[in-house]
Protein backbone atom coordinates (compact mmCIF):
# COMPACT_ATOMS: atom_id res chain seq x y z
CA UNK A 1 0.00 0.00 0.00
CA UNK A 2 1.39 3.46 -0.93
CA UNK A 3 2.07 5.93 1.83
CA UNK A 4 -0.45 8.82 1.76
CA UNK A 5 2.50 11.12 2.42
CA UNK A 6 3.59 10.47 -1.16
CA UNK A 7 0.45 12.19 -2.37
CA UNK A 8 -0.67 14.67 0.25
CA UNK A 9 1.16 17.36 2.21
CA UNK A 10 1.72 17.05 5.96
CA UNK A 11 -0.39 20.16 6.31
CA UNK A 12 -3.36 18.51 4.58
CA UNK A 13 -2.96 15.24 6.46
CA UNK A 14 -2.78 16.98 9.83
CA UNK A 15 -5.75 19.32 9.15
CA UNK A 16 -9.15 18.37 10.53
CA UNK A 17 -12.38 19.29 8.73
CA UNK A 18 -12.91 23.08 8.75
CA UNK A 19 -16.50 22.80 9.94
CA UNK A 20 -18.15 20.39 12.34
CA UNK A 21 -21.61 19.06 11.68
CA UNK A 22 -24.45 20.76 13.55
CA UNK A 23 -26.85 17.87 13.09
CA UNK A 24 -28.82 16.99 16.21
CA UNK A 25 -26.38 18.65 18.59
CA UNK A 26 -28.70 21.37 19.75
CA UNK A 27 -31.98 23.06 19.23
CA UNK A 28 -30.64 26.58 18.74
CA UNK A 29 -27.96 26.97 16.09
CA UNK A 30 -26.19 30.32 16.30
CA UNK A 31 -22.78 29.42 14.89
CA UNK A 32 -23.35 29.65 11.12
CA UNK A 33 -24.61 33.21 10.55
CA UNK A 34 -27.64 31.79 8.75
CA UNK A 35 -30.89 33.68 8.44
CA UNK A 36 -33.36 32.62 11.13
CA UNK A 37 -36.17 32.95 8.57
CA UNK A 38 -36.72 30.30 5.91
CA UNK A 39 -38.01 31.09 2.39
CA UNK A 40 -41.84 31.13 2.61
CA UNK A 41 -43.54 27.89 1.49
CA UNK A 42 -45.42 29.62 -1.31
CA UNK A 43 -42.12 30.58 -2.98
CA UNK A 44 -40.61 27.15 -2.35
CA UNK A 45 -43.56 25.58 -4.14
CA UNK A 46 -43.04 27.83 -7.13
CA UNK A 47 -39.36 26.88 -7.26
CA UNK A 48 -40.23 23.18 -7.07
CA UNK A 49 -42.76 23.53 -9.86
CA UNK A 50 -40.05 25.15 -12.07
CA UNK A 51 -37.65 22.37 -11.08
CA UNK A 52 -40.17 19.67 -12.06
CA UNK A 53 -40.25 21.05 -15.58
CA UNK A 54 -36.48 20.71 -16.01
CA UNK A 55 -34.96 17.72 -17.74
CA UNK A 56 -32.76 16.22 -15.05
CA UNK A 57 -31.00 13.93 -17.55
CA UNK A 58 -29.69 17.03 -19.31
CA UNK A 59 -26.93 19.36 -18.17
CA UNK A 60 -28.13 22.78 -17.06
CA UNK A 61 -27.53 25.71 -19.42
CA UNK A 62 -23.84 26.29 -20.06
CA UNK A 63 -24.33 30.03 -20.11
CA UNK A 64 -25.61 31.83 -17.00
CA UNK A 65 -26.35 35.16 -18.67
CA UNK A 66 -30.11 34.78 -18.08
CA UNK A 67 -29.59 34.44 -14.32
CA UNK A 68 -27.01 37.24 -14.34
CA UNK A 69 -29.53 39.53 -16.03
CA UNK A 70 -32.26 38.68 -13.51
CA UNK A 71 -29.88 39.10 -10.60
CA UNK A 72 -28.57 42.43 -11.89
CA UNK A 73 -32.11 43.74 -12.35
CA UNK A 74 -33.10 42.55 -8.85
CA UNK A 75 -30.02 44.19 -7.30
CA UNK A 76 -29.97 47.33 -9.50
CA UNK A 77 -26.62 46.44 -11.06
CA UNK A 78 -25.34 46.53 -14.64
CA UNK A 79 -25.83 42.93 -16.02
CA UNK A 80 -22.38 42.74 -17.64
CA UNK A 81 -20.77 43.38 -14.25
CA UNK A 82 -22.35 40.33 -12.56
CA UNK A 83 -20.82 36.82 -12.54
CA UNK A 84 -22.82 34.06 -10.83
CA UNK A 85 -21.40 30.98 -9.11
CA UNK A 86 -22.43 28.20 -6.74
CA UNK A 87 -21.79 30.23 -3.60
CA UNK A 88 -19.35 32.95 -2.60
CA UNK A 89 -16.94 30.36 -1.16
CA UNK A 90 -16.61 28.65 -4.57
CA UNK A 91 -15.85 31.98 -6.23
CA UNK A 92 -13.31 33.02 -3.62
CA UNK A 93 -11.42 29.72 -3.64
CA UNK A 94 -11.33 29.59 -7.47
CA UNK A 95 -9.87 33.08 -7.54
CA UNK A 96 -7.29 32.28 -4.87
CA UNK A 97 -6.26 29.21 -6.92
CA UNK A 98 -6.08 31.13 -10.19
CA UNK A 99 -4.01 34.01 -8.86
CA UNK A 100 -1.73 31.80 -6.74
CA UNK A 101 -0.96 29.54 -9.71
CA UNK A 102 -0.13 32.68 -11.66
CA UNK A 103 2.45 33.72 -9.06
CA UNK A 104 0.50 36.50 -7.40
CA UNK A 105 1.12 37.05 -3.69
CA UNK A 106 -1.99 36.14 -1.73
CA UNK A 107 -2.82 38.47 1.16
CA UNK A 108 -5.65 37.67 3.56
CA UNK A 109 -6.99 39.66 6.51
CA UNK A 110 -6.41 38.40 10.03
CA UNK A 111 -8.49 37.73 12.04
CA UNK A 112 -11.11 36.93 9.44
CA UNK A 113 -13.19 34.17 7.82
CA UNK A 114 -11.41 30.86 8.48
CA UNK A 115 -11.91 29.62 4.91
CA UNK A 116 -9.14 31.86 3.47
CA UNK A 117 -6.51 30.40 5.77
CA UNK A 118 -7.79 26.87 5.61
CA UNK A 119 -8.05 26.83 1.82
CA UNK A 120 -4.52 28.16 1.34
CA UNK A 121 -3.07 25.75 3.90
CA UNK A 122 -4.81 22.63 2.58
CA UNK A 123 -4.00 23.48 -1.05
CA UNK A 124 -0.39 24.36 -0.22
CA UNK A 125 -0.77 28.00 -1.29
CA UNK A 126 1.57 30.37 0.51
CA UNK A 127 -0.13 33.47 1.84
CA UNK A 128 0.56 36.52 3.95
CA UNK A 129 -1.64 38.10 6.57
CA UNK A 130 -2.89 41.65 6.77
CA UNK A 131 -3.32 41.97 10.53
CA UNK A 132 -6.15 44.13 11.81
CA UNK A 133 -5.16 46.79 14.34
CA UNK A 134 -5.50 46.23 18.10
CA UNK A 135 -9.06 47.59 17.93
CA UNK A 136 -9.81 45.15 15.06
CA UNK A 137 -9.94 47.70 12.23
CA UNK A 138 -8.22 47.74 8.81
CA UNK A 139 -5.14 49.93 8.92
CA UNK A 140 -3.06 51.23 6.00
CA UNK A 141 0.04 51.20 8.21
CA UNK A 142 -0.24 47.44 8.66
CA UNK A 143 -0.99 46.70 4.97
CA UNK A 144 1.72 44.34 3.65
CA UNK A 145 1.15 45.07 -0.06
CA UNK A 146 3.87 46.38 -2.36
CA UNK A 147 4.80 46.70 -6.00
CA UNK A 148 4.48 43.00 -6.98
CA UNK A 149 1.25 41.48 -8.24
CA UNK A 150 -1.04 40.36 -5.42
CA UNK A 151 -4.54 39.15 -4.71
CA UNK A 152 -5.74 40.95 -1.58
CA UNK A 153 -8.80 39.60 0.18
CA UNK A 154 -10.77 41.97 2.39
CA UNK A 155 -13.74 40.84 4.46
CA UNK A 156 -16.21 43.69 4.82
CA UNK A 157 -18.26 43.38 6.96
CA UNK A 158 -15.52 41.18 8.28
CA UNK A 159 -16.42 37.84 9.84
CA UNK A 160 -16.10 37.42 12.84
CA UNK A 161 -15.08 40.94 13.90
CA UNK A 162 -18.02 42.79 12.30
CA UNK A 163 -15.90 45.77 11.15
CA UNK A 164 -15.98 47.27 7.64
CA UNK A 165 -13.21 48.77 5.55
CA UNK A 166 -13.84 52.53 5.23
CA UNK A 167 -14.74 53.54 1.66
CA UNK A 168 -11.83 56.04 1.55
CA UNK A 169 -9.31 53.43 2.66
CA UNK A 170 -10.45 50.98 -0.01
CA UNK A 171 -10.28 53.69 -2.66
CA UNK A 172 -6.80 54.71 -1.52
CA UNK A 173 -5.64 51.08 -1.78
CA UNK A 174 -7.13 50.73 -5.26
CA UNK A 175 -5.39 53.89 -6.43
CA UNK A 176 -2.02 53.24 -4.84
CA UNK A 177 -1.78 49.52 -5.71
CA UNK A 178 -2.76 49.11 -9.37
CA UNK A 179 -0.86 45.77 -9.47
CA UNK A 180 -3.11 44.27 -6.82
CA UNK A 181 -6.53 42.72 -7.37
CA UNK A 182 -8.73 43.54 -4.37
CA UNK A 183 -11.42 40.96 -3.64
CA UNK A 184 -13.89 42.33 -1.11
CA UNK A 185 -15.84 39.47 0.46
CA UNK A 186 -19.14 41.24 1.03
CA UNK A 187 -21.46 38.37 1.90
CA UNK A 188 -22.79 40.41 4.86
CA UNK A 189 -23.05 43.71 3.00
CA UNK A 190 -26.86 43.90 3.10
CA UNK A 191 -26.63 44.23 6.91
CA UNK A 192 -24.35 47.27 6.71
CA UNK A 193 -24.88 50.71 5.26
CA UNK A 194 -21.49 50.93 3.55
CA UNK A 195 -21.41 50.45 -0.23
CA UNK A 196 -18.46 50.17 -2.61
CA UNK A 197 -20.50 49.63 -5.81
CA UNK A 198 -19.55 53.10 -7.09
CA UNK A 199 -15.87 52.06 -7.05
CA UNK A 200 -16.53 49.30 -9.62
CA UNK A 201 -17.06 51.93 -12.31
CA UNK A 202 -13.77 53.65 -11.52
CA UNK A 203 -11.44 50.76 -10.70
CA UNK A 204 -10.84 47.64 -12.78
CA UNK A 205 -8.87 45.94 -9.96
CA UNK A 206 -11.86 45.52 -7.62
CA UNK A 207 -14.09 42.44 -7.26
CA UNK A 208 -17.01 42.43 -4.83
CA UNK A 209 -18.20 38.95 -3.84
CA UNK A 210 -21.74 38.50 -2.51
CA UNK A 211 -24.07 35.68 -1.56
CA UNK A 212 -27.66 34.53 -1.18
CA UNK A 213 -26.67 32.60 1.95
CA UNK A 214 -27.12 35.33 4.56
CA UNK A 215 -29.73 38.08 4.25
CA UNK A 216 -31.52 36.24 1.41
CA UNK A 217 -32.28 33.20 3.60
CA UNK A 218 -30.91 30.77 0.99
CA UNK A 219 -27.70 29.20 2.36
CA UNK A 220 -28.92 25.77 1.22
CA UNK A 221 -29.39 26.93 -2.37
CA UNK A 222 -25.70 27.72 -3.00
CA UNK A 223 -25.87 30.94 -5.00
CA UNK A 224 -23.20 33.61 -4.93
CA UNK A 225 -21.99 36.26 -7.35
CA UNK A 226 -19.20 38.69 -8.10
CA UNK A 227 -19.64 42.30 -9.17
CA UNK A 228 -16.76 43.89 -11.03
CA UNK A 229 -15.75 45.84 -14.09
CA UNK A 230 -17.16 44.31 -17.34
CA UNK A 231 -13.74 43.36 -18.70
CA UNK A 232 -12.76 41.64 -15.46
CA UNK A 233 -16.18 39.90 -15.41
CA UNK A 234 -15.55 38.39 -18.87
CA UNK A 235 -12.36 36.76 -17.55
CA UNK A 236 -13.94 35.57 -14.27
CA UNK A 237 -16.75 33.77 -16.13
CA UNK A 238 -14.14 31.50 -17.74
CA UNK A 239 -12.85 30.51 -14.30
CA UNK A 240 -16.26 29.28 -13.09
CA UNK A 241 -16.59 25.55 -13.55
CA UNK A 242 -19.15 24.73 -16.29
CA UNK A 243 -22.53 23.51 -15.02
CA UNK A 244 -21.64 24.34 -11.42
CA UNK A 245 -25.06 26.00 -11.03
CA UNK A 246 -27.32 22.97 -10.87
CA UNK A 247 -30.99 22.77 -11.88
CA UNK A 248 -32.15 23.56 -8.33
CA UNK A 249 -30.03 26.72 -7.98
CA UNK A 250 -31.12 27.88 -11.43
CA UNK A 251 -34.80 27.11 -10.71
CA UNK A 252 -34.51 29.05 -7.44
CA UNK A 253 -32.87 32.07 -9.07
CA UNK A 254 -35.10 32.18 -12.14
CA UNK A 255 -38.30 31.84 -10.08
CA UNK A 256 -37.56 33.87 -6.98
CA UNK A 257 -35.78 36.77 -8.64
CA UNK A 258 -38.71 37.42 -10.95
CA UNK A 259 -41.28 37.17 -8.12
CA UNK A 260 -42.31 40.70 -7.19
CA UNK A 261 -43.30 39.61 -3.65
CA UNK A 262 -39.86 38.20 -2.79
CA UNK A 263 -38.12 41.58 -2.74
CA UNK A 264 -40.62 42.91 -0.23
CA UNK A 265 -40.37 39.83 2.01
CA UNK A 266 -36.64 40.04 1.83
CA UNK A 267 -36.65 43.70 2.88
CA UNK A 268 -38.84 42.87 5.86
CA UNK A 269 -36.57 40.00 6.94
CA UNK A 270 -33.48 42.17 6.59
CA UNK A 271 -34.89 45.01 8.66
CA UNK A 272 -36.02 42.55 11.37
CA UNK A 273 -32.52 41.10 11.63
CA UNK A 274 -30.91 44.55 11.71
CA UNK A 275 -33.28 45.79 14.39
CA UNK A 276 -32.66 42.64 16.47
CA UNK A 277 -28.90 43.25 16.10
CA UNK A 278 -29.27 46.84 17.31
CA UNK A 279 -31.46 45.84 20.24
CA UNK A 280 -29.06 43.07 21.28
CA UNK A 281 -26.09 45.40 20.90
CA UNK A 282 -27.59 47.80 23.44
CA UNK A 283 -28.50 44.97 25.81
CA UNK A 284 -25.03 43.45 25.52
CA UNK A 285 -23.35 46.81 26.04
CA UNK A 286 -25.36 47.24 29.24
CA UNK A 287 -24.32 43.79 30.46
CA UNK A 288 -20.68 44.10 29.46
CA UNK A 289 -19.36 45.76 32.65
CA UNK A 290 -21.03 43.46 35.16
CA UNK A 291 -20.34 40.32 33.11
CA UNK A 292 -16.77 41.33 32.24
CA UNK A 293 -16.69 41.31 28.45
CA UNK A 294 -16.20 43.80 25.61
CA UNK A 295 -18.22 44.17 22.44
CA UNK A 296 -17.57 46.18 19.26
CA UNK A 297 -20.32 47.37 16.94
CA UNK A 298 -21.07 44.73 14.27
CA UNK A 299 -22.12 45.51 10.69
CA UNK A 300 -23.03 41.84 10.10
CA UNK A 301 -25.70 39.43 11.37
CA UNK A 302 -23.60 38.40 14.38
CA UNK A 303 -21.94 39.77 17.50
CA UNK A 304 -18.43 39.16 18.77
CA UNK A 305 -17.94 39.10 22.54
CA UNK A 306 -14.54 39.19 24.17
CA UNK A 307 -14.43 37.99 27.77
CA UNK A 308 -11.82 39.63 29.96
CA UNK A 309 -10.71 36.29 31.40
CA UNK A 310 -10.55 32.65 30.34
CA UNK A 311 -12.79 31.75 33.28
CA UNK A 312 -15.45 34.19 32.06
CA UNK A 313 -15.24 32.72 28.55
CA UNK A 314 -15.52 29.15 29.91
CA UNK A 315 -18.50 30.02 32.10
CA UNK A 316 -20.30 31.58 29.14
CA UNK A 317 -19.55 28.68 26.75
CA UNK A 318 -20.76 26.21 29.36
CA UNK A 319 -23.95 28.22 30.01
CA UNK A 320 -24.75 28.20 26.26
CA UNK A 321 -23.99 24.48 26.03
CA UNK A 322 -26.27 23.67 28.94
CA UNK A 323 -29.15 25.54 27.28
CA UNK A 324 -28.58 23.76 23.94
CA UNK A 325 -27.33 26.90 22.19
CA UNK A 326 -24.46 26.45 19.72
CA UNK A 327 -22.25 29.52 19.24
CA UNK A 328 -18.89 29.79 17.51
CA UNK A 329 -15.73 29.46 19.56
CA UNK A 330 -13.18 31.70 17.84
CA UNK A 331 -10.92 31.97 20.87
CA UNK A 332 -8.02 30.11 19.24
CA UNK A 333 -7.75 32.68 16.44
CA UNK A 334 -4.85 35.14 16.91
CA UNK A 335 -6.12 38.47 18.34
CA UNK A 336 -9.40 36.82 19.38
CA UNK A 337 -8.47 35.28 22.71
CA UNK A 338 -11.56 34.59 24.87
CA UNK A 339 -13.90 35.56 22.02
CA UNK A 340 -17.27 34.04 21.07
CA UNK A 341 -19.22 34.80 17.89
CA UNK A 342 -23.01 34.67 18.21
CA UNK A 343 -25.28 34.83 15.14
CA UNK A 344 -28.45 36.92 15.30
CA UNK A 345 -31.27 34.41 15.50
CA UNK A 346 -35.05 34.62 15.90
CA UNK A 347 -36.28 37.12 18.53
CA UNK A 348 -36.91 34.19 20.92
CA UNK A 349 -33.36 32.80 20.50
CA UNK A 350 -31.89 36.28 20.93
CA UNK A 351 -33.86 36.78 24.13
CA UNK A 352 -32.55 33.47 25.40
CA UNK A 353 -28.97 34.51 24.57
CA UNK A 354 -29.42 37.70 26.57
CA UNK A 355 -30.96 35.76 29.46
CA UNK A 356 -28.07 33.27 29.51
CA UNK A 357 -25.55 36.12 29.61
CA UNK A 358 -27.53 38.04 32.28
CA UNK A 359 -27.53 34.91 34.46
CA UNK A 360 -23.76 34.36 34.26
C1 LIG B 1 -17.11 35.98 5.08
C2 LIG B 1 -17.79 34.84 4.40
N1 LIG B 1 -17.59 34.67 3.08
C3 LIG B 1 -18.18 33.65 2.41
C4 LIG B 1 -19.01 32.78 3.07
C5 LIG B 1 -19.62 31.66 2.30
O1 LIG B 1 -20.66 32.14 1.46
P1 LIG B 1 -21.46 31.11 0.54
O2 LIG B 1 -22.45 30.42 1.42
O3 LIG B 1 -22.13 31.98 -0.50
O4 LIG B 1 -20.49 30.18 -0.06
C6 LIG B 1 -19.25 32.92 4.44
C7 LIG B 1 -20.09 31.96 5.17
O5 LIG B 1 -20.24 31.97 6.37
C8 LIG B 1 -18.62 33.98 5.12
O6 LIG B 1 -18.78 34.18 6.43
Give an overview in words.
- By secondary structure, the chain is of the alpha/beta class.
- 40% of the residues lie in helices and 16% in strands.
- It has a 7-stranded mixed β-sheet with strand order 2-8-7-6-5-3-4. The chain has a 5-stranded mixed β-sheet with strand order 1-11-12-10-9, covered by helices on one side.
- Strand 9 and strand 10 form a beta hairpin.
- The longest helix is centred in the C-terminal third of the chain and has 32 residues, at 260-291.
- The mean pLDDT is 96.
Summed over residues and divided by their number, the pLDDT gives a mean of 96
Poorly predicted runs are none
Tell me the total number of β-strands: 12
Rg over CA atoms: 21 Å
The gist of it:
The chain is an alpha/beta fold and about 350 residues long. Helix content is about 40%, strand content about 15%. It is built from 12 helices and 12 strands.
Primary descriptors:
360 residues; alpha/beta; seven-stranded mixed sheet; five-stranded mixed sheet; 12 helices; 12 strands; 40% helix; globular; binds pyridoxal-5'-phosphate
Topology:
Layout: H1 10-14, E1 28-30, H2 41-52, H3 65-75, E2 82-85, H4 88-101, E3 105-110, H5 114-123, E4 128-131, E5 150-155, H6 167-176, E6 180-185, H7 197-202, E7 206-211, E8 224-228, H8 230-239, H9 247-256, H10 260-291, E9 293-295, E10 302-307, H11 310-322, E11 325-329, E12 339-343, H12 347-358
Parallel strand pairs: 1-11, 3-4, 3-5, 5-6, 6-7
Antiparallel strand pairs: 2-8, 7-8, 9-10, 10-12, 11-12
The site of pyridoxal-5'-phosphate has 13 residues, from helix 4.
Amino acid sequence: MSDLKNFFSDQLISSGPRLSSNADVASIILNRNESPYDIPKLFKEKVISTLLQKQWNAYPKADNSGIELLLATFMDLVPETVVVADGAAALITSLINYFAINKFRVIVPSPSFSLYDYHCKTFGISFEKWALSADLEYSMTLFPGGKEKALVIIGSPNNPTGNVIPHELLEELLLTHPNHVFLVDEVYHEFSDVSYTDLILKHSNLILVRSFSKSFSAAGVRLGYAVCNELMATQLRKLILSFSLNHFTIAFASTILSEPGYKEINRTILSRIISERQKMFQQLQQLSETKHFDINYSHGNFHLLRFRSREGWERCMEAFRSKGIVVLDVSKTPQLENCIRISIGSPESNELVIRVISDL
